[in-house]
Structures are given as structure tokens and as C-alpha cells.
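Residues determine shape. We examine one folded chain.
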Amino acid sequence: MDTLVATLTSRDFLIAVLAAISAAAVVFTFGASFIGRSEMKTRIKRVALEREKLRAEEMARLRGSEQNRGSIRRGGETRDYMKAVVERFDLKKAFQDETTLDKLAMAGYRGQGHLTTYLFMRFVTPFGFFVAVALYLIFVLDGDRPLFLNLAYAAGAGIVGSYLPVLLLRNQTSKRQQSIRRAWPDCLDLMLLCVESGMSIEHAFKRVSNEIADQSQELAEELTLTTAELAFLDDRARAFENLGRRTGLDGVRSVMTALIQADRYGTSVGQSLRVMAEEGREARMMEAEKKAAALPPKLTVPLILFFLPVLFIVIMAPAMIQVFSQSFPGN
């Protein structure tokens, strides 16, 4: 026993033990670095495979939606005569500016075909209105107006008709933005739940696009396009910027700016989405309060025109009946 204790407490034994521990630590350190590198390579490979898988799924999904829906917003096929007219009269220089494509995208119309159709309609609509109104005034509507006055009226109708494609485009844009605006706060909440549960931003966009389709088909379409762009484009910031540009809404642009900053500076995406979701809920509550505050002035005119006369009749009718019965007792 004394020999064992003396051996364990001897100087040479302690030096040997410490040297062995040091050598083991060195070996473990270098081995852990190689193991970590191999694990990192494995994770990178998995991410690359998952990215390729997501890209293939989005390609198949977009192709299937184009074939099944047959919507005018996808594909944008145009007639040959439209292309011929646009090229013959060089309508792009006459009607197209740097914001035309953005306006069409905000209305849900993408592609060269939709641009050609829009330019063709802007060129043809004034002439169509002029001819239709002139034929109606001259041959259908009876009157003694001179011919030049009918033609003047037809020219005025043609000038008004030239703004019809622009008005229809604005109307479609307004409806689309209204649908996206209503569903956007719920979309942020769903996206926040997906990100905080461990999903990547690509999977979050994909999942939310499937869930939000019942509430807003327009927003689901935009999120699907963003998911495809995140899988295709090398720069994720371009995909986020394109979403804000296509919607044209300040709330969407602010969220996309926050995501770009989070991706660029490495900040928490979940925290950014949480802040933006809270701001979205507050903005929706403020909008509801604004509408509630504007309700009493809007009810003033209907109240005066419809409620007060009926109320006066109900109040004054018994007294009037009694007065007339006393004034004309024989009747």
C-alpha cells in the first residue's frame, strides 16, 4: 500500500500523467477540428441538396399552376396582330415609361405578352370609342344636330376612352392591393411562427403561401413567386425587393427591408418579423379605429334624410289626428 501511494505521489509519475493529458488534449483538439469540418461539409451538402429539391418543387409547382389555371396573369399570350400593331406604330415609345412594367406587376400582369396587350389597348380604345359613338349618334339616335357636332361628340368620347385602360389597370391594382393588405398581418404572424419553429425563410414563405391562399389568392401568388426567386437568384435581397416592388405597399416594403438588413448583417430574422408583426397589428387596429371614428359623420346625412322624418311622423301623427278630429267633429 505504501509503495502504491509513493508511486502515485512521485514526481516522475505526476509528470508522465500531465504529459499524457496534454498529448490527449492536443490530439482531441485537432481531431475535433477535423470532425467539425466534416460535419460542416455534411451540413453544407444537405443545405445544397435541400435547396435543389426546393428549386425543383417550385419549378414543378409553377409549371402546374400555369397549365391548370390558364389565368391571363400567367403566360400572357398575345395575338399576332397585336404584336404587329405595336411594332408597326412603335407604341413602346409612345405609351411605355419606366413605371409601366411596375404598374402591370402591381396589377398582377407579368410578362411581355401583357405589356403588348396593354399598349395595343391604349392605342385602339380611343378609335373604337370614336367609331362607336359616331355611328350611334349619326345612324341610331334621332336628332337634327349637324354632322360636325356629332363628330365633335365622338371625338370627346374617344378622348375619354383613351383613359379607359389606365382606369381599369388602376382599379385592378387597387383591388389586388386591398386583398394583400388585409391578409398581410396574418401572413406576418404565420411567417413568424414558421421561423421561430426552426424553418428557413424559404420554407416559411412556401408554407405560408399554402396557408394564406384561402384568405388571399393574390398574396399567395406573390409569396410563391418570391419562394421561386429565393431558390433561383443568387442574391436573396433581390427577391425581397421584387416582392415589395410587385405589391407596391409600404407595409410589405418595410418588412422586406427588415429581412434584407437581417440577412445582410446577420441579425435575428425572428426578432425582425416579431417587431414588424406587432407594427402590422397596430396599423390594422389604427385603421379600424379610423373607420370607426369616420362613421358618425357618414351617418349624419342618412339620419337626416330617412330617420328624422319618420320619427317626426310617429311623434306628431297622434297629435295631428286629435287636432283634426276636434276641428272637424262631423267627419
Remarks:
- Residues 11-69 form the longest helix (59 residues).
- The chain has three domains: 1-35, 80-162, 178-293.
- The two ends are 139 Å apart (CA to CA).
